[in-house]
Amino acid sequence: NRVNQELERSHRAEDEARDARLNALQYQLNPHFLFNALNAVSTLILEKRDEDATQMISQICDVLRTSLVSNTPSLISLSEEIAVIEKYLAIEQIRIGPRLSIAVCVDGDVLQAQVPAKILQPLIENAVKHGVSCVPGEGQITVRGYREDDRLKVLVRNTGEKHGSSGQPETSGAGIGLTNTDRKSTRLNSSH
């Protein structure tokens, strides 16, 4: 009986530590998103696109309102995560306009799967920044969610390549968003 109590206490401590790490990673993403979004608003203002800037500020408020709820759990349903990235993509749609094409296709049987909150946002941000913004013409972002065996698979694809300052495709160097996403994924996988 004492062994079971110790084992239960150990599992509870591991869960609390995992939740604390996930929360810390999420708090790092909010300033990252806010910086990028405000930079985009600034660009719209400089381009004299006042109506678009006003609309974007409203969308930013919606995203921040969702993310600043004081009791946001570290794990949310995939459908809630998709709703957040759709709000983010609405912001980017204002900035980029018709050049940005978006396709979100998530199978109904995985919509209630639990994922770390904001796990897709850095992937979507990078897809926009490196896959659409830097390529001439139309760019597409595709988000696909489905079940493969007993695992949830979520793919984020874009039509462009990540380029370094030399103009050549970049092959290394994940930023804070991708590093945090990798850490969240590792934590989620290790908890099962």
Structure notes:
- By secondary structure, the chain is of the alpha+beta class.
- Helices cover 56% and strands 16% of the residues.
- It is built from five helices and five strands.
- It has helices at residues 2-46, 50-67, 78-96, 121-131, 176-190; strands at residues 75-77, 100-106, 114-116, 139-148, 151-158.
- It has a three-stranded mixed β-sheet, covered by helices on one side. It has a two-stranded antiparallel sheet with strand order 1-3.
- β4 and β5 (151-158) form a beta hairpin.
- The chain is elongated, with a radius of gyration of 19 Å.
Question: What characteristic shape results from the CA principal axes?
Answer: elongated
Number of helices: 5
- Category by helix and strand content: alpha+beta
C-alpha termini separation: 24 Å
Instruction: Give the integer mean of the pLDDT values.
Output: 76
* Uncertain residue ranges: 163-192
**Largest sheet, strands/sense/barrel:** 3 strands, mixed
- Strands of the widest sheet, in order across it, are 2-4-5
Helix content: 55-70%
Rg, Å, rounded:
19 Å
How do the SSEs run, as a string of H and E? HHEHEEHEEH
The percentage of residues in β strands lies in 15-25%
The number of distinct β-strands equals: 5
